[in-house]
Amino acid sequence: MATAADPAAPGAVASATEDNRPIRPRASRDEIAQRGVIGVLVLYLVLALVLPIGMVFSKALQQYAFTPDQITIAFGRGGAFEAPRSLQSWIDETGYVVNDGLRASERTRVQIVRIIPRPARAGVEAYRVTDASSAGGQLLLGQEFSAPGQTIEVPAADLGRIQVRPQMSYGLGNFGYYFSQKSLSDSIRNSFVIAAIVVAINVPLAFGFAYALTRTRIRHKEWFRLISTVPILVPSLLPAIGLVYLFGNQGILTPLLFGASIYGPIGIVMASVFFTFPHAVIIMTIALGGADQRLYEAAEVLGASKRRTFWTVTLPGARYGLISAAFVVFTLVITDFGVPKVIGGDYNMLALDIYKQVIGQQNFQIGAVVSIVLLIPAVIAFTVDRVISRAQTAQFSSKAVPYQPDEDVRRDRWMLGHCIAVSVFILGILFMCQFAALAKFWPYNLTLGFQHYQFNKMDGGGWAAYWNSIRLAFFAATIGAVLVFIGAYLVEKGRGFVAGRIGLQFLAMMPMAIPGMVLGLAYIFFFNDPSNPFNFLYGTMAILVINTIVHLYTVSHITATTALKQLDGEFEAVSMSLKQPFLRTMTRVSAPCCLPAIGEMWMYYFVNAMTTVSAVVFLYSPSTNLASVAVLNMDDAGDIAPAAAMAMMIFYTNAAVRILYGLFSRNVLGSLQAWRAR
Amino acid sequence: MPEPYLRIRNVSKRFGDFTALRDVNLDIGKGEFVCFLGPSGCGKTTLLRAIAGLDIQSEGMIEQAGRDISALPPSERDFGIVFQSYALFPNLTVADNVGYGLVGKGMPRADIRKKVAGLLAQVNLPDQGAKYPAKLSGGQQQRVALARALATEPGLLLLDEPLSALDAKVRIQLRGQLKDLQRDLGITTIMVTHDQEEALGLADRIVVMSQGRVEQVGSPVEIYTSPASVFVADFIGAMNFVPARVAGPGMIEIGSARFAAETAHINGDGRALAAIRPEDIKVQGVAPGDANALEVTIDAEEFCGSYMRATVIDAALGEARLKADLSMNLVRGMALTKGSRLPVALPPERLRVYPPLS
User: Where is the ABC transmembrane type-1 domain positioned along the sequence (chain A) (predicted)?
Assistant: First the structure.
């Protein structure tokens, strides 16, 4: 054997300097395959997320303005053309107000015949209209744009066919315009005020509820937990509709408002409390559920009063949950547009502005500006949430002794009351919706029947919309869960290609910061562009699936990575040593071990695809109408009872899928997971 | 000398600014059982992972059976590996775990089954194939992991702290089985451990590592009896360290007492560090005229079951305090207790001298 040669390390072999060279690890065929898959996923997220969002920014910077001083017009009388005059001089002369004083957008057009009054055109046989701009494209004859310096000659009768287009330039003009419009900038304030009020109501409400679930001995906790999650299963439009029936002009509880109107801030706040409640409860249950019994024993031994223990142990322990819940609720409210659409009256909110600007006025530029304004709170909330969730994971030690609530009858009685009150609020709205959906003619004829379920007789897409939603939910859930899991697996367990994996991780976290409305609008900009090779997707079911998968990507990704992190980190090393491809280890070991998480991801996708309105409202076509959008459109058309009926259909579907999943996971997954038993 | 099976040359590994391995050189012969021993963070696991290709070294060469594997991914190298966590696939039965590496190689199903049964018998787990890992004890799981690693008949077996997660009793039992199995199969084996007892008991050779460097390579006896550095001397076993001066060729001075010891390797101003193991201090049959003998006083005593570890002092030794192991027989026979005087000797061949710590 080698003997001592190096005095620093007796017994070791002598150093041989010629071998001292940097090593470039060679990638195995497996690693190259991994890179390929990561590349495909990154490409998908770039095409379906980054580029569309980029288009929002570029659209927001596109400003349009008429430049009539760069257009000249010459009259042809008696076979000869007179000297050309600029259109601007005509405007100055006649006092014509271009575009009624409204801000020009991409689609605004002005006709020359409206600028030059008829008497001034008497006896003209032909016109020569010249585009004197250097950019060109100012004039539109039929489908043709003018070239720079081009002169169009038309007979007198055809002057009406020539339209003037505004010129596009890049700048911050849209933002200046937006903030100068009181009605628009008011909605910023409104959105922030409403969101803040909802946070102020919901955080204590949810804290109390979560406290009751984790720190008391009340009975039927499972039922209360179940009830608190009901709002997740319905579109945010449903509580708004329910409130209309409860407190609207013909509501059964309207007198309780003492003359105040439910249409406006009150309605928005109440409906928002309803649909954001489960999110706050889930976060807070986790925050309160991780308590360490020993801290409470220590406080008791030190002689702290119950109140002091609450303020010095309980609250600080839950502080991350409180902050996180506050930000999540705030963002949900500010980015939701279903609630103000149904019950907002003329109270303007940010997310609704996007809808109005785009669907109502076709003003995409201002829609993009509002989107960017909406992105700001969403991105801040996202950042805070990420920072906090990191701090919170560090807070819990694995050695914590689970908290056991002590006996306290008075506390439990109060907390039970709280839980019952909240449950009555949630179930009351749900019940109201169902009742209104069945009542023949609210409030005059309350005979129950199914006439409002004849969706095919209403606008909004009919039963086809419902089946479309199921298809969307099924495809998004199935494809999404598989895609997200593969992505998360490669991020967590992949080998090499660090840049690609970090990139994928970053892209996977992005969608959570993008409100659905903004993503939907981004898709219009990106996919509706005829020059985009993916334009053929526009108006298809595929684009809805693509959009939904991206929209809900982050939460699923986090679910998958959390589950994967719990697996032994050396599975992949062992498989490599056994010369097995990663695909086999993923499908044979990692995926089966993460089956409960994959099921959760599937459920999350399915339920949210059924209820979401915000992103898809810009993307559906007559052939791909969706149930949630149908609720919106039927409500808009005044068919409120059918809207309620459809919203309840969504609820029953989600509830049924949940129950089926529960049975499935207990029986089928249970037998597949037999290995977990010790 | 036969060609070494594994040749490691100038291997360094950096993680950002942190250097985990510095210029490591090592030869391992075919069929050898080598332990990488050192405190946590010494680079032993990093070296193992570099050999496996899991974290490939920044520079340097690794050659296995004459093949340069330096840049190869793990899947193109020839090794089996067992981790501290076992890393058994929890959703597969024991038999499926062991046979995991045999599938997809065109081996008939029946042959796989037979081979798996044979492997399980080899690790003393016959008839456990149908169980899931969670149903087995830690020691059983580790044996399944071992069978899985051996199933593909690799040329090299890598063990990353395989026994550290087990109870003390199971650990010792499994240690014996591991050694027998390795000897039977004749497979070249590298085991990473921080447990010196494990290394001393199992290894043909031990590689002591510290701060990314190889401190010493040698047989367990060599490492124990002739530690090459203060680090090795301190890390393995118990050791007295006392400041000393070189008083002349083959002569050192502790306090005002002079002792014979090997000093040829000490340069500089004569300051040195003398070291002797507590069990090497001779206490029985010491005659006043013996080499390196002196009389000391017991200043403190620590009962250790079969022996007494006494702290001894003497005016001649100055500040130095030495720990000496006294057998309980002797303690009882001589009625030794705190304050007792007794003659001891520091045998010159056991007294080692190191350069002073800077």
Answer: 188-385, 466-661
Q: Among the three residues B211, B233, B255, which one is the final residue of a domain in this structure? A: B233
Digit-by-digit pLDDT tens for chain B (358 residues) are: 578 999 999 999 999 899 999 999 999 999 999 999 999 999 999 999 999 999 999 999 999 999 999 999 999 999 999 999 999 999 999 999 999 999 888 889 999 999 999 999 999 999 899 999 999 999 999 999 999 999 999 999 999 999 988 898 899 999 999 999 999 999 999 999 999 999 999 999 999 999 999 999 999 999 999 999 999 999 999 999 999 999 888 999 999 999 999 988 888 788 999 999 999 999 888 887 788 999 999 999 999 988 999 999 999 998 999 999 999 988 998 889 999 999 999 999 999 999 988 7
Best mutation target, B15, B91, B153, to test chain A (most A CBs within 10 A):
B91
Q: Which of B1, B59, B216 sits opposite A11 (nearest CB)?
A: B216
Q: Are B165 and B145 spatial neighbours (Cβ–Cβ below 8 Å)?
A: no
Residues 551-610, chain A, touching B (beta carbon < 8 A): 568-571, 573-580, 584, 588-589, 592-593
Q: Which residue of A has its CA nearest to B7?
A: A13
Please tell me which of the candidates B9, B59, B213 has its beta carbon nearest to residue A16.
B9
In chain B, which residue's Cα lies nearest the Cα of A587? B91
From the list A204, A181, A210, the residue with the least C-alpha distance to A282 is A210
Q: Is A607 helix (H, G, I), strand (E, B) or coil?
A: helix
- Which of A572, A427, A392, A485 lies closest to A41, judged by CA? A485
In a domain, B1, yes or no: no
Domain contains B171: yes
Write down the ipTM of this complex: 0.87
* Strand residues in A204-297 grouped as ranges (E): none
Which of these three, B203, B233, B263, is where a domain ends? B233
CA atoms within 13 A on the CB side of B296: 26
The answer to whether the CB of A161 falls within 8 A of the CB of A107 is no
B81: nearest CB among A16, A568, A573 = A573
Q: Are residues B215 and B338 in the same domain?
A: no
Across the interface, do B52 and A25 touch by the CB < 8 Å criterion? no
Do the beta carbons of residue A364 and residue A618 sit within 8 Å?
no
- Is the domain of B194 the same as that of B261? no
Give the nearest partner residue to A23 out of B4, B57, B90, using CB atoms: B57
DSSP 3-state assignment of B14?
A: strand
For residue B109, tell me if it sits in a domain.
yes
Residues B156 and B10 in one domain: yes
Q: What residue spans of A62-118 are helical by DSSP H?
A: 87-94, 112-115
Q: Is A31 on the interface with B (CB under 8 A)?
A: yes
A670 near B CB under 8 A: no
Segment B177-199, tens digit of pLDDT: 999 999 999 999 999 999 999 99
Q: From the list B25, B72, B100, which residue is nearest A15 (CB)?
A: B25
Which residues in A lie closer than 8 A to residue B6 (C-beta atoms)?
none
Domain extent for B292: 238-354
Which chain B residues are within 8 Å of A574, Cβ to Cβ? 81, 83, 87, 148-149
Partner residue facing B73 (CB), from A13, A26, A571:
A26
CB A202 within 8 A of CB A305: no
Query: What residues of B are in contact with residue A21 (Cβ under 8 Å)?
Result: 59-61
Contact criterion met (CB below 8 Å) for A561 and A489? no
In this structure, the answer to whether residues B85 and B186 fall within a common structural domain is: yes
Q: HSE on the CB side for A135, CA within 13 Å?
A: 11
- What's the gap in Å between the CA of A387 and the closest CA on chain B? 25
How far apart are alpha carbons A528 and A530 in whole angstroms? 6
Closest-CA distance, B202 to chain A, in angstroms, reads 18
Is residue B228 domain-shared with residue B300, that is, in the same domain?
A: no
User: Same domain for B127 and B248?
Assistant: no
Q: Domains in chain A and their CATH numbers?
A: 66-168 (no CATH), 181-449 (1.10.3720.10), 452-676 (1.10.3720.10)
Q: How many domains does chain B have?
A: 2
| pLDDT tens digits for range A464-482 | 999 999 999 999 999 999 9
